[in-house]
Amino acid sequence: MGAIAERDGRKRGYPMKAGANLAANVPAVLDSGYLTDVSDGSGSATSAGVTTFEADNSAGANGDVIAEVVSGEHKFANNGDITVANAGATAYFVDDSTVSSDSATSSRNAAGTITQVDGDGVWVALGV
Questions:
Q1: CA 16 from chain center: how many Å?
Q2: pTM, whole model, 2 decimals?
Q3: How many whole angstroms separate alpha carbon 111 and alpha carbon 77?
Q4: 109: closest CA among 120, 119, 123, 124?
Q5: Domain regions of the chain by residue span
Q6: Which residues contact 55 (CB under 8 A, 6 or more apart)?
Q7: What is the distance of C-alpha 100 from the center of its chain?
Q8: Per-residue pLDDT of the chain (128 residues; tens, 9 = 90+)
Q9: Is-contact 64 8, C-beta < 8 A?
């Protein structure tokens, strides 16, 4: 038996973690397979992408709501420690709009690979 299906796109839908509430256009991570905000997961969550719409599972159980994210390169504010020499290295979420080259002793979730550093921010490839 061959492949079941094919897709060529950057949008993905993931089940949300219980209690999670995500605004539109914010990065999100997968913690044990459930989508949640970048401060959740204690440094072990996987970058999923940036939300396309607001999604609220604050009153639900794990998986009650599916949220959509877009993977690919997204620009974030620089915490001040990322330089052009960091291209190809891992960026870590400080918050939902800022990235750093420092994992803060593995307490920050990885955002993805730094692809470019501009004067006004850092391009990071997000998503699984």
A1: 13
A2: 0.92
A3: 12
A4: 124
A5: 11-70, 72-126
A6: 16, 20, 21, 22, 35, 65, 66, 67, 68
A7: 14
A8: 788 888 788 999 999 999 999 999 999 999 999 999 999 877 899 999 999 999 999 999 999 999 999 999 999 999 999 999 999 999 999 999 999 999 999 999 999 999 999 999 999 999 98
A9: no
Token pair 């905000």 is found at: 37
C-beta neighbour count of 18 within 10 angstroms = 16
Q: Are 62 and 15 in contact (CB under 8 A)?
A: yes
Q: In this structure, which amino acid lies at residue 71?
A: S
d(CA 27, CA 70): 9
- Residue 84 CA to residue 66 CA, distance in Å, equals 36
